[in-house]
Design a protein that fits this description.
The protein is of the alpha/beta class. The protein is built from nine helices and 23 strands. Strands 3, 6, 7, 9, 10, 12, 14, 16, 18, 20 and 22 form an eleven-stranded mixed β-sheet that branches. The radius of gyration is 21 Å and the shape is globular. The two termini are 32 Å apart. The C terminus is likely disordered.
Length: 447
């Protein structure tokens, strides 16, 4: 049995206060029992070997309370360009700060309001694995609100659906557990953005779970942005269920937070489905960013592509653990996994673990990882053309980041992310520490 940390007694009191009499209560109770049984994971657990969650486990968190903020306070997050936006503060929906122009065949609402909706009862908790992940179990037990998006068959949603989750830290550590449900019908098309930010400094814990169900021939793009404060712990799980010929692209941009754990778990359950898992994580100071990808090929003729780039500066640490499982019946699978990392300082660190598990005999699967530094020859070339060192580094880092940004096809969202990346880069481009030997590792396996 995997060792775990003991669950603080305060969690029991919080769970008791959230008890309800609706159909969700039995699901909550099962999830909380599982969380109590398993506790918080430790580094003895293979899925968490590179990330120590003791800082979360040993902190006495209270549920964050509803807090009022003004429209002026939202301006710094640059969200006005999104026509459809839902704003949550400390995990609670704020209708006066939100805007939903509506569209035939599109149903967007907050989960707390629509808990009795048929789509919620049909899909909530059907795919998220609370047995495998104690943070998913904790979310299921303690969630209070989140977004629910239902797209009818054949509907193409005109605008991105943008959800902003704002944490307002308190004098004491607080936590919130957003729960999101996205159901895209057959032949539908939709783009969703989840953006997690902090307003003020302090210790906070955001533990998010999103279930995304893509029907036959659906085309879904999902974006995850984390840019919280220095005292923020952000854990998220995106569970994707794909039916026949569904095409799902998921993009992550991780910029801010003390400790980030980004779980992405697609299951290609329908024949001919495709999935793109694309991400960029950029860490500074003593930030820790852990990316755990679990891609399951369960049906034949499915394709998956994973591309994750990391830029690490200061004393930061990054993790990429990519795991592809090809089940016995998933013949003609085509899967590729690539992780590339730049270390900008002597003290930055990356742990990368590409992994394949293949149980079918007619597949094409490759994986690879590289770790290195800024190319000194390219830097010299740019400087010889008149750029100073900081500007030259900025150009090279932006080119590296653009490898991921170029895969983002929704122009409005991509412009938003490009602005965030450009705002982050100048500080890191100024690094001028001594050079170290470039450590590069190339791993490839073909099945």
């Amino acid at each position: 049995m995997i060792a775990s940390t003991q669950v603080p007694e305060s969690y029991l009191g919080i769970f008791d206060r959230l008890k309800t009499r609706d159909w969700l209560q039995s699901i909550r109770e099962e999830a909380f029992a599982r969380f109590v049984e398993e506790g918080f994971p430790t580094t003895h657990d293979e899925d968490w070997r590179f990330t120590n969650v003791a800082a979360v486990a040993n902190t006495e968190f209270e549920l964050a309370q509803p807090t009022k903020i003004s429209a002026e306070q939202l301006e710094s997050f640059a969200i006005s360009q999104f026509a459809c936006r839902l704003v949550f503060v400390n995990g609670h929906f704020v209708p006066e700060l939100s805007q939903n122009p509506g569209q035939d065949g599109l149903h967007v609402f907050n989960l707390d309001f629509g808990i009795g909706e048929a789509v919620v009862e049909d899909y909530f908790g059907k795919f998220l694995n609370i047995q495998r992940d104690s943070f998913a179990a904790l979310n299921t037990a303690l969630f209070e609100d989140g977004i629910c998006i239902e797209v009818a068959d054949g509907v193409q949603v005109k605008h991105p659906i943008y959800a902003l989750f704002i944490t307002v830290p308190n004098a004491t550590p607080t936590m919130n557990h957003p729960r999101n449900l996205i159901v895209a019908g057959e032949n539908s098309q939709v783009t969703i953005v989840e953006d997690y930010v902090s307003l003020g400094e302090g210790v906070s814990f955001s533990n998010t779970a999103t279930e995304l169900v893509a029907g036959n021939n659906a085309n879904v793009s999902h974006y995850m942005i984390v840019r919280e404060g220095e005292g923020a712990y952000n854990f998220s799980t995106l569970r994707i269920q794909q039916d026949r010929s569904a095409n799902v692209a998921t993009h992550s941009l991780l910029l801010g937070g003390a400790l980030i754990r980004n779980n992405v778990h697609p299951v290609l359950a329908g024949e001919g489905s495709e999935c793109l898992i694309n991400g960029l994580f950029m860490a500074n100071g003593r930030q820790h960013m852990d990316n755990y990808m679990l891609v399951e090929h369960a049906s034949p003729h499915c394709d998956s592509r994973q591309f994750y780039n990391g830029i690490l500066n200061g004393n930061s640490r990054g993790v990429f653990h990519g795991r592809i499982i090809v089940h016995k019946d998933a013949q003609k699978t085509d899967a590729k996994q690539t992780n590339r990392n730049l270390l900008l300082s002597d003290d930055a660190q990356i742990d990368t673990k590409p992994q394949l598990e293949i149980y079918a005999d007619d597949v094409k699967c490759t994986h690879g990882a590289t770790i290195g530094q800024v190319d000194e020859n390219a830097l010299f070339y740019l400087r010889s053309r008149g750029l100073d060192e900081v500007s030259a580094r900025h150009v090279l880092l932006l080119a590296f980041a653009n490898e991921c940004l170029d895969r983002m096809n929704q122009q409005q969202v991509r412009d938003h992310l490009e602005r965030l990346v450009n705002a982050w880069l100048p500080e890191s481009a100024q690094f001028s520490g001594g050079s170290t030997t470039v450590a590069e590792r190339n791993l490839e396996e073909v099945g």
